Each structure stands twice: as C-alpha cells, then as structure tokens.
C-alpha cells in the first residue's frame, strides 16, 4: 500500500514560478519576433525619429513661409502614426487575424511612400525655414527618419527579390517534369 503522494511525486512538476510558464499581461500579447532584428531596429528608429521631428517642428513658434512647416508637420505626424500602426500589427495578435501577405505588402508600400514623402517634406522645409535651432533639429530628424524608412524599404525589396529567386528554380523543374513523356 503506497501513499498517494509517493505515486505522483517523481513525475509531477512543481508549480512554475513567475520566470517560467506562459507569459501574462502585456508580454503575452506583444511578439517582436515577427520582424528580424535589423528591421526591428529600423522600425524603432523610424518611430523615434519621426516623433522627434514632429516635436521639434511643434516647438517652432513663428514662421515666414509657413507652407513648408505645415507640410512637414503633417508628414512627420502621419509617418509616426503609420509606423506605430505597422508595429502594432506586427507585434500583437492582430497579425494572426489578418493575411500576412497583405500586411507585408502594405508595409512595403507604406514604407516606400512615407520615405519618399518625408524626404520631399524635409527638402521643402529646408528651403522655407527661418534657420531657428528647432527648425534645424526638425529637419535633421526628418532627413534621418526619411533615410530609415527608405533603408527599411530597401531591405524589404531585397528580401522580396531573394524570395522570388528561390521560387523560380522550383517552377522550371516542375515545367520540365511535365514535358517528359510518361512511359520514358
């Protein structure tokens, strides 16, 4: 006659502590692993630099030619919000509920669009600013953010090209196999 405890002791594991087991709270719904490290870093820099460009632009109290400032304001705030949206989609369970191909395609075109328009806004702002330190800081952050968006687009374009080159050999092998006679 064995005690009940003796039967279960060798195979039953203790209650895992907080360091082990399933993640809880915010950590459970945030997954940064869907983006490779270089893209994660670029997305973080895009977010930070576009926010800093927007903040520096908001500090500007007066302007002579305000069109460039207002366009830069719109672009920097939009870039920040769109980048934040893409990060939220990549890092939360939302990603599992939508088509991953559409997310990547949207990210591809949004990143390209933001990079080009942010670069244009920065160039326009350079030609219309009043040379205050806040404007110069905003412009520097604007150009840096533009380059981060364009670098991210470059990485995505490179990855897309690599994927399409991997698929091509498979398609040619299948085509050759279909043209061979069955009784050869």
Automatic annotation (TrEMBL):
Residues covered by the MARVEL domain: 34-161
Membrane-topology annotation of the record: Multi-pass membrane protein
Transmembrane annotation, as ranges: 78-96, 108-126, 138-158
Keywords: Membrane, Transmembrane, Transmembrane helix
Chain intervals for the UniProt region annotation (Disordered): 1-21
Entry annotated with the keyword Transmembrane: yes
InterPro entries, per the entry: Marvel, MARVEL-CKLF_proteins
Localization annotation: Membrane
Pfam families, alphabetized: MARVEL
Recorded superkingdom: Eukaryota
GO CC annotations, alphabetized: early endosome membrane; plasma membrane; recycling endosome membrane
GO biological process terms, semicolon-separated: endocytic recycling; protein transport; regulation of protein stability
PANTHER family xrefs: CKLF-LIKE MARVEL TRANSMEMBRANE DOMAIN-CONTAINING PROTEIN 6, MARVEL-CONTAINING POTENTIAL LIPID RAFT-ASSOCIATED PROTEIN
Protein name listed in UniProt: CKLF like MARVEL transmembrane domain containing 6
Underlying gene: CMTM6
């Amino acid at each position: 006659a064995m005690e009940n405890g003796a039967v279960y002791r060798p195979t039953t594991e203790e209650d895992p502590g907080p360091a082990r087991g399933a993640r809880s709270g915010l950590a459970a719904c945030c997954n940064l692993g869907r983006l490779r490290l270089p893209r994660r870093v670029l997305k973080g820099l895009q977010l930070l630099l576009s926010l800093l460009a927007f903040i520096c632009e908001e500090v500007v109290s007066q302007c002579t030619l305000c069109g460039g400032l207002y366009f830069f304001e719109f672009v920097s705030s939009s870039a920040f919000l769109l980048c934040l949206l893409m990060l939220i989609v990549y890092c939360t369970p939302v990603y599992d509920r939508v088509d991953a191909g559409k997310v990547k395609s949207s990210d591809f075109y949004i990143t390209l669009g933001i990079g080009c328009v942010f670069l244009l806004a920065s160039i326009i702002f350079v030609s219309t600013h009043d040379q205050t330190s806040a404007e110069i800081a905003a412009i520097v952050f604007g150009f840096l953010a533009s380059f981060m968006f364009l670098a991210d687009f470059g990485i995505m374009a490179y990855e897309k090209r690599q994927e399409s080159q991997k698929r091509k050999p498979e398609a040619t092998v299948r085509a050759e196999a279909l043209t061979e006679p069955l009784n050869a």
